Amino acid sequence: MIEKIKRTAELAEFVIQGVTKDGDTFRPSNWGERLSDMLATTGKDGRIVYSSYVRPMMIQSIPSVVVRFSLETADPHGFELVRQFVIGNHLKVRAGRNRMEAGATGIFPTLNMERRSPQNNGW
User: Fold this and answer.
1) Sequence-distant (≥ 6) Cβ neighbours of residue 23 within 8 angstroms
2) Which residue has the higher pLDDT, 30 or 123?
């Protein structure tokens, strides 16, 4: 759980792993993209632009999502959405990179685009 990660000023991110606390592989296999899509925006060209705070990726062959702790300050509602997703699906979470490794110098800028929704998709 996110609360169990020892948060320090140096820790920049945490990793949600696609494995439940029971050790089962979390399904569907594209859950990371789906979670990241919830906080993504749509560019002027109609393409999905992932937030700089939440990114899907494969880490050691495990589908994962890397979340910057600065999301909690920049978008408290978005952070709570991610937290509830982890709790509701009983997913494993671990500490990620520190600020130096992640290239973090402060709060990351939010994108000046509206969040994806049926009203602003442009499709």
Assistant:
1) none
2) 30
Any bridge partners for residue 93, and if so which?
16
Whole-structure pTM value: 0.76
- Would you tell me the crossing angle of helices 76-89 and 31-38 to the nearest 10 degrees? 150
Structure tokens at 121: 């998709």
Rg (alpha carbons) of the chain, rounded to whole number: 14
Peptide bond into 28 cis (omega under 30): yes
Q: Write down all domains in the chain, each with its CATH number in brackets.
A: 2-102 (3.30.70.2340)
Q: For residue 82, what is the DSSP state?
A: H
Cα separation, 15 vs 112, in Å, equals: 25
Residues 21-40: tens digit of each pLDDT: 999 999 998 999 999 999 89
User: CA 20, CA 49: separation in Å to the nearest integer?
Assistant: 28
Q: DSSP string spanning 27-52?
A: SSTTHHHHHHHHT-EE-TTS-EE--S
pLDDT category at 118 given cuts 50, 70, 90 is low
Q: Could you tell me if 15 and 99 are in contact, meaning their C-beta atoms sit under 8 angstroms apart?
A: no
